[in-house]
Amino acid sequence: MCDMRWINHPVRGKRNIRLVIRNTEHDYMGRSTGAGALAHLKDTEVKDWADSEYTGNVIKIGAGVQGFEVGQALTKHGLVAVTGECPTVGVAGGYTQGGAYSLSADNTLEFEVVTADGKFVKASPHSRKHADLFFALSGSGAGNYGVVVSVTLKAHPEAMTSGAGFTLDDPSLDYPAIVNAWHAALPAILDAGIMAIYYAEKGTLVVYALTGYNRTQADMEKILAPFVKSVASLNVDLKPKYTQFGTYSEFYYSYFGPLLVGVFGSASETSWVAVCCTAMRSSKSVLGVRVIGQATNIALFASHSRAVLPQWRDTLIMSFYTLPYSFDVPFTKMKTEQDYITNTIMQIIEKVIPDAGAYINKLISSNLIGRMFSTVKIIGGYWSLRSRMVRRGCFWDPIAVGSEGWKTQNDGKLCRA
C-alpha cells in the first residue's frame, strides 16, 4: 500500500527526537498535533477474509483514510463499516486505536505497523510474535506502540436503515419527569438493537437520532411506542418523526454529526437521571449547561483479544456536558466556564458514579487522565508491552502511557521529568 523503505527511514533516526504520530486531530488533548505534520496513506482495498475468528468481507485501509473515504470505497460493493459519526474522522488512528467506543476496535483484524526500532510487522490476534501488539492497538490508545501503516477491518452488508427523532421544548412541561421516562425506556430500546443520540437542558429534550440498522419504519414505531405512551401521562402528545432509507449509507449522511462522550454504566441510570435533573434545576443551568447523551449496547461484542476500556462493556449511556462557546468574549471567560464544567459539574458526576470512564480522545480532566493511566497499566500488561515496543523512547504524546516520563517546558521543549 506504500513504500516501506520510505516509512522505515524516519523511524530509524538516531537524533534523540520524539515522534508525534498525526491523524485527523479529532482530539481534545491535541495528541495528534505536530507542526508540519503530513496526512497521507490513503489506499483502500476490499477483499475476502477467513480465519478462526471471522470469515467474510473486509476493507484494508491506509492510516490516513477518513470515514467518508471508507464509505465511498465500500458502497460500490454493497458494504459498510464502522466509522466515526463525523465523516472526516480518520479511522485507523486514535478513533480505532483509542477504542472508538469499542465499536471500531471490535472490528479490527490486522494492523501493519512500523515499530520504534524500524521493523515493519503485521499484528493480529493469531500472530505468534505480535498478538499482544494487536491487543494494545485495538483500543488502548494511539501513538504509543508504533506507527500504524494500515488496518484491516470487518465489512458488513448494506441494509435498510430507519431513523426516528423528536423535539420537546415547551417550557410548561415537567422536564425532569420526561428525562426520567426517557432513561427508563432506553434499556428496552437498546436491547432492540437501536442506538440513540440526544441532548437535554432546562426546558428542552431533543432525541436527534435513533438508528435502526436493518429495521423498518414500522419497527421503529413499535420500539418507541412504550416511551410515547409513558410521556402521554405527563400531558405530552409526542409525535416522533420517522424515516426509512434503502441503505445504511443514505441514513448515515442524512443524520449523523459530531460524536459526544463521557461514560456511564447501565446500572447507574437512576443516579444519572438524578444528576441530570439536578443540573437542569440548578440556577447555573440557566446559563446553558447541556447534557448530551449517546446510548448503545455493545456488551455482546466483547473480545478478550482487544483492549477496550472495561467500563464500556457495561455502559448504557455516554454523556457530555457543555456550555455555549463564543468567540466574541475574552478567552478568560470561556476558560472560567470550562473550569465550571471540570471542577463543579464533573465533581458531581464523579461522586455519583466514581467508576465511570471516558473515551480517551475526549479527555479534558486531569484526574480522568490519571484514571486512564491506571486502567491501561492494569489490563493485559500494557506497560510492559510499551516498554518493550518503545524502549528507545521514540513515541510521545501528552497523555500516552509513559508520557509521565517527559515534561513539556514553557518554551515548548520536551525534557525528561
UniProtKB/TrEMBL annotation:
SUPFAM superfamilies named in the record: FAD-binding/transporter-associated domain-like
Pfam families: FAD_binding_4
DNA repair listed as a keyword: no
The family this protein is said to belong to: Belongs to the oxygen-dependent FAD-linked oxidoreductase family.
Domain of life per record: Eukaryota
PANTHER family associated with the record: BINDING OXIDOREDUCTASE, PUTATIVE (AFU_ORTHOLOGUE AFUA_1G17690)-RELATED (PTHR42973), FAD-BINDING PCMH-TYPE DOMAIN-CONTAINING PROTEIN (PTHR42973:SF39)
Name by which UniProt lists this protein: FAD-binding type 2
Keyword flag Phosphoprotein: no
Cofactors (names): FAD
Organism: Penicillium cf. griseofulvum
GO MF annotation: an example: FAD binding
Span of domain FAD-binding PCMH-type: 1-158
Entry keyword set: FAD, Flavoprotein, Oxidoreductase
